[in-house]
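Module 6 notes. Inverse folding takes a fixed backbone as the condition and produces residue identities as the prediction. Think of it as a translation problem where the source language is geometry and the target language is the twenty amino acids. Below is one complete input and output pair. Work through it position by position during the lab.
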């Protein structure tokens, strides 16, 4: 999941652009710099919490259960609400944003499934949840790639020098 956090950081970048008559460019700058700021912060908080109790950081089922229930799911739920609140003006960016929503929904449902798996001690549910997490990662990577491509097409330069400092 560490890679997932890095993927989430990429969109949380400052965009530099001059005034232009390009509506996609203007929409993209507004989207990254303003509209998505809270959503990105909530997602990083949720995924960081999950990473702290999974994989090599796993210690026991109770710790994982408690963290997912009290931190991961509430923050991820707020993240999804924030994603759905974002109003994108241009069709090109709207299509990309929908990819993110789809990936986020799958990831949220995977977290819920992990919680159920821990409650019932059902390894099959854990395997299903892991498959869902992989599917979500693919969609989120697609979102990042499409967003970067759109930025390049509309001559929006990415500057990630301040991202790590702010998180």
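Target side of the pair, the amino acids:
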């Amino acid at each position: 999941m560490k890679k997932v956090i890095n993927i989430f950081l990429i969109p949380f970048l400052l965009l530099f652009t001059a005034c232009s008559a390009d509506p996609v460019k203007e929409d993209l700058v507004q989207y990254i710099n303003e509209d998505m700021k809270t959503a990105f912060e909530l997602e990083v908080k949720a995924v960081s919490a999950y990473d702290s109790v999974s994989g090599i950081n796993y210690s026991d089922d109770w710790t994982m259960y408690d963290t997912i229930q009290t931190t991961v799911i509430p923050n991820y739920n707020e993240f999804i609400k924030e994603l759905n609140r974002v109003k994108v003006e241009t069709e090109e960016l709207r299509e990309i944003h929908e990819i993110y929503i789809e990936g986020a929904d799958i990831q949220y449902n995977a977290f819920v499934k992990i919680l159920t798996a821990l409650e019932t001690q059902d390894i099959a549910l854990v395997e299903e949840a892991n498959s869902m997490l992989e599917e979500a990662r693919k969609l989120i990577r697609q979102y990042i790639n499409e967003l970067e491509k759109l930025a390049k097409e509309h001559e929006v330069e990415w500057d990630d020098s301040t991202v790590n400092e702010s998180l």
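Reference fact for the lab report: The longest strand covers residues 14-16.
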